[in-house]
Write a structure and sequence with these properties.
The chain is mainly α. It has one domain. It contains seven helices and no strands. Helix 1 packs antiparallel against helix 2, helix 2 packs antiparallel against helix 4 and helix 2 packs across helix 6. The longest helix is centred in the first third of the chain and has 29 residues. The protein is elongated.
């Protein structure tokens, strides 16, 4: 998908509100992807806690958490604004909602720690919840692109 992937979804032939929704989806996706990439780098550093370069980890965790707020509801609205029947999408959007909620629980658990080590972030990255969410976003990106090639 890459950062540009979801940014491109929904741009052609979409109303202004659809274009705004496409930009919001791209922004949310960018935040999630950038955080995940930062987490990979942070995990590789072997830091025992938030010293030196580690001070940014909480900022990325919080941004990721915020990007997940209301994601499923947003997607239902976005698809509706495209003029597409939302019903076939509801079940998968519910999956995104559950995976987003599960990933958010993991993010918030990490944020609650007094110090965040590279090992904690490595385990967060490996979490099936975070990986499932990323895969969900890759899939919905491709589906949305197909709606308006």
């Amino acid at each position: 998908m890459g950062r540009a992937g979801l940014r491109e979804a929904g741009q052609a032939g979409v109303s202004d509100s659809g274009s705004a929704a496409a930009r919001e989806l791209a922004a949310r996706s960018d935040v999630i992807e950038e955080a995940y990439e930062f987490f990979l780098a942070y995990a590789a550093q072997g830091l025992p806690g938030e010293t030196g370069a580690g001070h940014q980890i909480r900022e990325f965790l919080k941004k990721f958490d915020t990007a997940l707020d209301g994601l499923a509801e947003f997607l239902i609205g976005y698809i509706g604004r495209l003029g597409v029947d939302v019903e076939p999408y509801r079940a998968f959007i519910a999956v995104i909602g559950r995976d987003g909620s599960d990933a958010q629980a993991a993010l918030r658990l990490v944020l609650a720690q007094p110090s965040i080590s590279s090992q904690i972030i490595d385990n967060l990255n490996a979490s099936i919840h975070v990986r499932a969410l990323l895969t969900d976003l890759f899939l919905i990106d491709e589906v949305l692109k197909a709606l308006h090639p």
